[in-house]
Amino acid sequence: FGSKMVVQKKQVSPWENYMEFPDPLHWAAAKGDLLAVRQFVRGSDGAPEIEADALNKDGKTPLHYAAIFNQLKVIEYILDPFPHGAGCMVDMSDTNFLTPLFMAVEQGRAEAVQLLAKRWANVLQTNLAGSTPLHAACMLGQARVVEHLLSTSAVISASDDSTIRVTGLEYSEGWLKLERSRLLVRQSEDHNVVRGMQIIQDRIITGSTDGSIQ
């Protein structure tokens, strides 16, 4: 009829971008798409309502993936109390007893580690191997993560042979166990691993329990 046909493109809501995946909320959390995460959790704007602490086939929650990919705003929303946030627990473990804090440590996500620790994540949680997040950070050479972990708690403990326990009354015990940990470090040429253990050594020598790195 001589007139141009105008085709209006339907605007896609953020949550719709993740519906092709088996765990859309987990994907949205991993991508840091806060709006989509909110839509799924609230069941708003036509999105299917999904529990904020839903488990996927690996036993991981959306918070695990937000921690892995350092998505700080998503972490805050998931942990903030209702109605401002989803009100989830910070220490949900997967099938390997790994919490979101552990996942952030393994990936070297220092900012996520700091945020989770401030939100009272258990820094003494052990995995199936009996290691704490601090052990994992040292052995993986995550020096910045080590510093954050030490700055958030006066107690450093674990259940395996490389245990280091530091409190005002127990730092001498930690000094003895430090020698055992050094044997592990000597097998590595990774400067960051050595740096991580050096921080711990300095902490024990000074007997610092005020949460600061001496």
TrEMBL record:
The keyword Zinc-finger does not apply. It comes from the Eukaryota. The keyword Repeat applies. Keywords: ANK repeat, Repeat. InterPro entries: Ankyrin_rpt (IPR002110), Ankyrin_rpt-contain_sf (IPR036770). Pfam families: Ank_2. ANK repeats lie at residues 58-80, 129-161. PANTHER family: ANKYRIN REPEAT DOMAIN-CONTAINING PROTEIN 39, ANKYRIN REPEAT DOMAIN-CONTAINING PROTEIN 39-RELATED. This is Uncharacterized protein. It comes from Guillardia theta (Cryptophyte).
